[in-house]
User: Fold 5'-nucleotidase from Ambrosia artemisiifolia.
Amino acid sequence: MDGVIGFEDGEVASLLSSAEGMPTLDIGKRIFCNSAVNMKNIVAVGFDMDYTLAQYKPDTFESLAYDGTVEKLVTNLGYPKELLEWSFDWTYMVRGLVLDKKRGNILKMDRHKYVKVAYHGFRLMSKSEKVATYGNTFTRDAFDGPDYAHIDTLFSLAEAYLFAQLVDFKDKNPEKIS
Assistant:
């Protein structure tokens, strides 16, 4: 801390370790950077979700996101209670997929946006189905906009898995989901 321009030796350290000149904040709004935090007075905890401050266990983190989403679909949006019995396999999906929300398809493309593999829910689409829907060469479709969702982070894997489950469920039970 010594040698900082504009400060005498030792002044910087005393400024950093002193509450003098600091605005008065409610304890619940302060940020603490120590290895142990007493959670008794903490009201909320935020997550950076990019692995810079914390290392996440993907199975635990994604399962919480998945379970919370399913619960909201059932309680807030009126989806069938059967969904609450579903489970999440965090190893099934990978980053780099594109969800075709309009058609219910999950796409794996190459860097030229050629659809190499396509699934409808969990069902692998035949080559003829895939070609009929997306063509067999470079396509001008940018695969973006409101009809598509890109699964480009680890935190989107639960979303993709739930999407596939919902597509399969709707195909088998069209009367249960509008």
Observations:
- Strands lie at 97-100, 105-109, 115-120, 123-124, 148-151.
- The chain has a mean pLDDT of 82.
- The longest strand covers residues 115-120.
